[in-house]
Design brief:
The chain has 322 residues and is an alpha/beta fold. The chain has 10 helices and 12 strands. The chain has one domain: Rossmann fold (3-Layer(aba) Sandwich). A hairpin with a 2-residue loop joins β4 and β5. The radius of gyration is 21 Å and the shape is globular. Pfam families: ABC_tran, oligo_HPY.
Amino acid sequence: MTAALDVRGLTTRFETRGATVTAVNDVSFAVEPGRILGLVGESGSGKSVTGFSILGLIDSPGEIAAGEVRIDGDDLRAMSPDQLRRMRGRKVSMVFQDPMMTLNPVLRVGDQMAMAVRVHDRVSKRAAWDRARVALETVGIPAPAERLRAYPHQLSGGMRQRVAIATALLHRPSVIIADEPTTALDVSIQGQILAEVRRLADETGTAIVWITHDLAVVSSLADDICVMYAGRIVESGTAEQVIGHPRHPYTRGLIDSVPSRGQPGEALPQIPGSTPQLADLPTGCAFRPRCSRASELCRTDPPLIGKDHTALCHHPIEEPAP
């Protein structure tokens, strides 16, 4: 099956005072129609910059320095700014962590959703409102006609996030990039939205990249997982492979630190140290200073091991510790 989204060698850099920071370093992955890819990592790992880079939303002092981003075979990096603007919303959409980044507080929900429809399609306002109503129904919003007449501040946080997802679905895009869209929501609302997203991927065939720091979320949502650290993908595979049999020590540390895995009253295991500054990465493997399996060999660039389930590591977990 042809990938809906195919990213190859994506590299994004930012110019800072006295240094060039590589926030996304030679990142590659593919997502087939109807599948959900979880892009996981700590804050500062480069996962959100990866999402913005896919849509070409990197401005000075940043630049996409290398790589290909193809949606349904079309290379976004080869497009002019006007072509790219026409592609956004129609072929690829983004859902942000804060829905108020998507919603205008002074316009009714229906007006702004209808506006999003008419940017790409020459339809009447009534037809655009009808499409918006259907999109709200699709994400499980009750009384959608009433919600269209509401202003964003009149909706709950969970409802606003559903509106943002519905807006992203207006043109049935091939790909949706979701940047931690449920982080600020309570657990029950988060669960409802995750269930709706899973259903939408299955029913519409939209490929979804779900960016998150929460392995517990992607373990139940995603088909495939890519784990990022210091701008690079350090492990990738199916969700069952990555969660059930992690090969990279960083992935193992993330899984062990999930609260549900611990016993009440016990201290949670933690990965020692902190995420390195991208402007001052250690030589070789960036995870080396925090890794209990590190050896002198780890001062050199790690190899990519595996085929379907890969890890960027000198000492993957199936090997004994050096």
